[in-house]
Amino acid sequence: MNSYFATAEQQANPCLRGRPVGIIKAPGRGCVIASSIEAKKFGVKTGATAWRAKELCPEIILVPADMDKYFSLTKKMITIVENYSPTVEVFSIDEVFADVTETQNLFSGGVVEMVYRIKEDIFLDLGEWIKCSAGVSFSKLIAKLASEMNKPNGLTFLNTDNYLQETADIGVEKVCGIGSSRMKYLHDRGLFTLGMARKVDLPLEIHDLVWLLEDENLVTKDDLFPAKSVSRTYTTFEDLRSEKEVEVLIRNLSEEVAEKLREMGMAGRTLGLFVRSEIGSKSVRKTLKDPTNDGMVIFEMLWREYLTNSLLPVRFAGVSVSNLVWEGQMFILEEVRKRNMVLKSVDKVNDKWGQFTIYPAIFLENELIRPEVTGFLGDKWYRFGGRKRT
What we know:
The chain is 37% helix and 20% strand.
């Protein structure tokens, strides 16, 4: 999907169509997480600060993100693609892989007709303002790169005869797997395109990426597998300069993570905390003997570790729980069992009346926040029909 969040907002609100739009996480937040096709023409990119976006494009309209809206469109998009192939892998909220090796033969025009039909179905079901690009090739890595080559609304075919030539002028950072550190490694050596990088000897893992080689090429329905971790992050509007403020934020994050774990019917043993400010950062990692999905336990363990060498001020914090197991695999003492009964009652009320209808008393004199989901659709297994709490 092209400029997905922004075009979704333009589809929902015709007044935004044809105008530069930047999507921010929430009202007043300072970072653009997606920009419209019109905004990109002014140089507004993902990650730009709001003031920088305004500087580049004074007419830009900043719109708070609506993840539920985007996810509902994603489910429609996935359903459409599944009508053309039984093997569809959800890669992110705006991208899927489909193995059409067998089903393309059902169309007189082969894969070409199939792709055009998929694009037409998306146009009809999601809306005429929403754009998508498709890449067709013999491997996932190359198909993904092909889908990036002609935007917006493009279609690119790369086969075994032309893929090296057609990708020679593509920037190295466009290849999935070449992140900031690998890009810096290549740029520091004057290697900016794939064609340049293919002319020199490189470490094996980078060599394989610039030559577009991959070991595992099968499209898998990995959305059917459980999440490996659950995390929540939050960037504050201004620096938190007191331990009390940081304490409330971390407790808020811990409760959000714990609630999500219980919703998924899971618990975890490894707890993580990361805090950051302009002067530095601090990370905490704690592995428990027994798994938990209790926000109070998660918070107390992390807070105790944080206080051993606290960092102030704080502008960003994240809490994560990994090393997950099913709730049924938990060894529960009698006092923990009673506590779990209380949490189930709280969850029942919050499920009916809304998140944080019932919440810890520490929040009474402080503002509740809605933490940001790290890597939206990281819980795609659960979202697409996995186990849920009863």
